[in-house]
Description:
By secondary structure, the protein is α/β, with parallel strands linked by helices. It has one domain (5-252): Carbon-nitrogen hydrolase (Nitrilase/N-carbamoyl-D-aminoacid amidohydrolase). 21% of the residues lie in helices and 19% in strands. It contains five helices and 13 strands. A five-stranded mixed beta sheet has the order 7-8-9-12-13, with helices on one face. The protein has a four-stranded mixed beta sheet with strand order 1-2-3-4. A two-stranded antiparallel sheet has the order 5-6. Strand 12 and strand 13 form a beta hairpin. The relative contact order is 0.13. Residues 1-243 form the CN hydrolase domain.
Amino acid sequence: MAIAVLFLPEASDYIAANAQASLDLAVPQASSPFVQGLRAAAKAHSIAVHVGIHDTVLGQEADQPTRKILNRALYINSDGMIQHSATYDKLHVFDYGALRESATVQPGTKFTAPVDSPVGRIGSLICFDLRFPETALALAQPGRSSPWAARPAQIITYPSAFTLRTGEAHWETLLRARAIETQSYVVAAAQVGRHNEKRASYGRSMVVDPWGKVLLCLKGVADAEGNAADGAVEEVGFVDIDLDELERVRREMPLQRRTDVYPELTVV
C-alpha cells in the first residue's frame, strides 16, 4: 500500500503537565529536534506529513513574564520541506474546566489558504476550532471574494487532543457535521491515552467523507484515567480519499447560499 500523506495529532511534540512546563518545553520550529526528525523521515520515505506542534513566538524572550507559545499545524511535503504558506496557528484556544489554554497559547490571527497535497487540497484547523463552523466553511465553501474561491479545501483537518468529557459528548457529532455542511473529507488525528497525572486524551481518530459517513474510527480511552478501550490505543489507520466522490456530492447537492438574506463568508 502506497501512503501519500501522514496525519498526526495536535501537540504531537509534547503535552505538558502544567502551564509552565508547556512554556519551557517549547523550542523554535527551526531548531526543534521533533520537527527536524519528521522532515528527515518524510524525505526518506517520500511521504508528506501534516502535524500539530508547539512553536515559540518570534520576538518574545524566554524569561519574558507575559510570553506565550503557538499551537501550530505544519505541512511537510514528501521532500522533507516545510511549506510555510500552509502553516496555521490555532485561532480558538480551549478554556474549559481546569484547562486554560489561553494562559500559554497566543491565538492565531488568520486562515491559511488550502494547500495542494497528493490526496487533495488541505485546509488546516486545530481541535477547538471544530466548534466554529464558520472556519471550515471559510476554507471549503468560501465566498466569491475569498482568495481561494476557485480552489477551496477538499479536506479539512482537525488534529486534536479532546478530553474524555467533551469527546464522549461531541467529538463524532461535530466531525460529521463539519463534513456534511462543507461537503468535504474531514481528517481528525487525535491524541489518545494518559499523558501525565493531570491529563488524558479521548482519542478515536476519525475520517469522515463528504456525505457524513465515518470511514475510519480508531480506538480511544475508556475512562478519565486514560485506560484503553478494547486493548491498545495507539494505532495507525489507512483511508483512501476519493475526490471523484467529493465532486459528485458537491455537484448533485449544490450549496446555493442565500447571500441576499445573510452575509457571504469573507476572509480578511
